[in-house]
What we know:
- The structure is a homodimer.
- By secondary structure, chain A is an alpha+beta fold.
- Among the domains of chain A are: 13-99, Uridine Diphospho-n-acetylenolpyruvylglucosamine Reductase, domain 2; 106-224, Uridine Diphospho-n-acetylenolpyruvylglucosamine Reductase, domain 3, CATH 3.30.465; 228-339, Alpha-Beta Plaits, CATH 3.30.70.2190.
- Chain A is built from 15 helices and 19 strands.
- Chain A has helices spanning 13-21, 31-35, 59-71, 124-132, 150-156, 163-166, 201-205, 240-252, 265-275, 297-311, 323-334, 336-342, 359-372, 399-418, 434-456; strands at 27-28, 52-54, 76-79, 96-99, 106-110, 115-118, 136-137, 173-179, 185-189, 214-221, 223-224, 231-237, 259-264, 285-291, 316-320, 346-349, 352-353, 377-382, 387-394.
- In chain A, the strands form four sheets. In chain A, strands 12, 13, 14, 15, 16, 17, 18 and 19 form an eight-stranded antiparallel sheet that branches. The first copy, chain A, has a five-stranded antiparallel sheet with strand order 5-6-10-8-9.
- In chain A, helix 1 (13-21) packs antiparallel against helix 3 and helix 9 packs across helix 12.
- The longest helix of chain A has 23 residues, at 434-456.
- Chain A is globular, with a radius of gyration of 23 Å.
- The two termini of chain A are 21 Å apart.
- At the A-B interface, strand 9, helix 7, helix 8 and helix 15 of A face strand 9, helix 7, helix 8 and helix 15 of B.
- Chains A, B: This is FAD-binding protein.
- Chains A, B: Its cofactor is FAD.
- Chains A, B: Keywords: FAD, Flavoprotein, Oxidoreductase.
- Chains A, B: Residues 46-225 form the FAD-binding PCMH-type domain.
Amino acid sequence: MAVTSDASAPPDPVVAELLAALPADRVLLDPDVMATYQHDEAEWAEFGRAAAVVRPRSTEEVAAVVAACARHARPLVPRGAGTGLSGGANAVDGCVVLSTERMREIVEINAAERLAVVQPGVVNDDLRAAVAEHGLWYPPDPASSLWSTVGGNVATNAGGLCCVKYGVTRDYVLALELVTAAGEVVRVGRRTAKGVAGYDLAGLMVGSEGTLGVITEVTVKLRPLRTSPRRTVVGFFDTLAAAGDAVSRVTARGVQPAAFELIDRVCLHAVNAWKHAGLPETAAALLLAQTDLPDPAGQQEAEAIHAEFVAAGASDAMLSTDEVEADALFEARRLAYPAMEQLGGAILTEDVCLPRGELAEMLARIEQIAARHDTPIATVAHAGDGNLHPMLLTRHGDEAGKARAQAAFEDILDAALELGGTVTGEHGVGLLKLSGMRRELGPEVVAMQRAIKAALDPQGILNPGKVVG
Amino acid sequence: MAVTSDASAPPDPVVAELLAALPADRVLLDPDVMATYQHDEAEWAEFGRAAAVVRPRSTEEVAAVVAACARHARPLVPRGAGTGLSGGANAVDGCVVLSTERMREIVEINAAERLAVVQPGVVNDDLRAAVAEHGLWYPPDPASSLWSTVGGNVATNAGGLCCVKYGVTRDYVLALELVTAAGEVVRVGRRTAKGVAGYDLAGLMVGSEGTLGVITEVTVKLRPLRTSPRRTVVGFFDTLAAAGDAVSRVTARGVQPAAFELIDRVCLHAVNAWKHAGLPETAAALLLAQTDLPDPAGQQEAEAIHAEFVAAGASDAMLSTDEVEADALFEARRLAYPAMEQLGGAILTEDVCLPRGELAEMLARIEQIAARHDTPIATVAHAGDGNLHPMLLTRHGDEAGKARAQAAFEDILDAALELGGTVTGEHGVGLLKLSGMRRELGPEVVAMQRAIKAALDPQGILNPGKVVG
Lengths: 469, 469
């Protein structure tokens, strides 16, 4: 495939169409600039060289890009901020990468209907801040919320800290405007609280990683802003198994924390080393639970969680009413991944989700897998969801270590499947989980997935190779 | 198409296969018996004569039925309890009707994972009662919950009273076992709190009315049983517009009632006439709101709702702490439809869902439509969702009245679409909303729907003519 910046090559007909159809500043052709758009943050996921990167500003411009690709059966790879960890936004050779970064308009915030309409490039935290001014709350809060976009969140069905109580992105998407593989602009979903007119196409698009259509507008449901004081319960555990047991106990008691996170010792150390956070590094793991019910129910919930932490054998457990202290602990959770990156080396990030009762067993198996493959593994988790993010650590350039980490990665997927879990809780299939997804779903269900892909994208131009392979 | 009970007709090859493959008591061939399985409760929705009705007891038996139909390209119409109001379970000539009424096993109730696994024929109320013994709660509660089945609820994405705060059936379906159009048994979805391995096929199946697969097992998410005392706020309004205004005010204030219903004067009268309930019939409409937060927050919410009822001009408004009294009012709401039936005549039931802010305007337009078409219309509503169920009343045998009611029915759909609503909030497309669905979605989205149908059911044997026409 010719790269158009190479003067000796024949002109690329798709690029020529893009240049003719769009204002000049929408199309990037410089290979060095394009390089930053050709992959997400998934370690070792393959990516190719794009023919062009386009940054449209409107639905019409997106439609023109898709139509050009459709006419030439050219791969189109949509991307948000590129914070994904599965390779879902990675370029294939000769493709057009479509970045939504310039589609940042908040089109509508409607307090009466409790909804907002945004372009896909609006950053998650920016949406939350904007609706807060209207007394409203957009719950989905992936750890990448400072950078990741609503469009990317929808394409991957992003989770986050709040979803243990408030659900994932899917639970907040009311309607989508999208450009189909044929270049048509359509609207799916609704603005009403309920609706069952036809198959749930909006739901089908959520988590489809740009393989079924390009999202150009998102209508999200909002909640009233929370006003109750948050209470944080902190527990320190000498073993990961004890921490897992604490999670099961809290769940079985019927308590619903608004966030329920786990950070292991390696991650605490990394955050301390980077941010001088002064976090305790003596315990094997720290559990952080937060309640948001109005008092006295909130206080009662916090006390119940505390009691279960103690019953599970916490070496220390405390209720924090100091919001600054609590925020620092949750900030440490959010910073775990970049902090690990600061330590140097390459990080392969897992995303398995287990039945909650299997959490302790899964944590034990991860330790065994780390030992078996001589691969250091640090773990953070949305513990209350059973969603673990073990991070497999290697040194740059250590090819043998990379091979061991990749073997450990697949072993973790197999262990999760054996315990009734899934290979991806919230990061998506992308490229890194293709094999695991096939093991999880089996050939008949994979065939159903591919039939749907073929039905909505007969030429296979939309983000080829992702989700369904 | 030959009916096999007709001795002079050649034997039906599908029926012969069914009789060979299944125990004898699974297959019904008596036309009088079959007649009760050939339609749901949708007034005036067409239905045909089935070749056989089968009542399998296991997934394997369902697979055998689908395989027989697939071999002969014979239509298969699955049904739950037949309480639907859109014709989604109506037979077509020569089809095999598959009733799930004998698949009533509750397979698993898992308190640790907060989930239950059930066969599709389990009755909604029976599931709720069974999980309550484990301290758990299954929220979706269509007014038909005493009779309707979980499988039917999933197939139609049933709503109910609780969904204003707790969501619809879709929000509780974790996984499904189904038999595909090819007769294969597959599992879609997951048992974990989160998961994004491949397209959301479980979500796609919810609300697809048996047109994409036959559901043989349902895994549902549960919540902890509510323990706080419920507080009910009752408001009487002299005009429907004032009641609509009260709903908007409560929503805008950020209060989230756990149920928020409207009953108009005609329905109150019908319930009184049937059950001697002693409900007041002086107001144009009654609003019923219930809170379930722990006190004092529950009390504060109830007082806020009361204040908004008064501000919207309620002729009377009160907080009820008497659970017996409150239950009687909600029972009246649930009984509205059968009570109207007791009055005699045929009832065409609507199911439009509006943006909440358009509720008052829509109620006004319904009054205009009733006058224009000389058709009495009684209304109950899940007011907090903007989901209205106007009931169009006619006398049996009054053909002119039937034609007027049908015209009014379509006018209500058009009015809902004009105000940004949907033609079906929770009853489904079935047959009665096919035309409205097309007007709502437009040709491009209808084409996407049909492409998915063709991808998963290439022969078009599964419940032909429903949802996508």
